[in-house]
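Example 3.2
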Amino acid sequence: MGKLSDIGTIKEILSRYGFSFSKSLGQNFLVNPSVCPKMAELGGAKKGVGVIEIGPGIGVLTYELALRADKVVSIELDKRLLPVLDDTLAEFDNVKIINADVLKTDLRRLIEEEFPGMDVVVCANLPYYITSPVIMKLLEERLPIKSITVMVQKEAAQRLCAPLGTREAGAVTAAVNYYANAELLFSVSPGSFMPPPKVSSAVIRLDIRETPQISVDNEKMLFRVIKAAFAQRRKTLLNTLSNSLGIGKEQISRALDASGVSTAARAEQLTAEEFARIANELNKTQN
């Protein structure tokens, strides 16, 4: 098989199978030959490691992962790509393609069945429209994985990796920070894809924490507080928590005071520890 990141090779393959890009599935295939090897290396693909890939496309990243890792399982929603992948990855016996929706897939069972005795990482060029749902599924299910290395829209990458307590941080930042340490690895220009997207991309890695960064009495309450705090981020915590949680301002005010947080503070100013203290105070009154 010719170089899968070569535009001519890609066009020939797609023409052979009568494939056309689907906007609804957010399909943009990598054509920059330097990106996928770098992603595979930084994503932890190596001997003794199993890799879960999401949305392999025609297999450009899959190829590089398969060269390095013991086994690669790629989850592809578009069944039109299955014969293409059979062709482009024919030389590998350590790749398995699963035609499924990752958001509906039992990933814990998949890991148990496909990667016994292996360290497991996730490495993927994610369609932008499912970035947050996929990342949160991978984190919230507490899967036995070491890291998640994904290419996402650059704006999303900056938000996911922003330090808490800064203006760039959002609800997803706080949620990701609870489960993992996020690092922005490198940027990728629109010209690295076919067809080129209208925005720049970036590769990030989330290294999963063995235990969450902070201790809370009730995780669900923590995430309710985080989501509520950023729901109306221009408003003070007193107002947005009261409005979004449906709890009276007096009760919110007492919880903030007990947590050492000003009622005039805004979500973007809070640290992970402060979110945890607020959640713990509110949890006491909700039981």
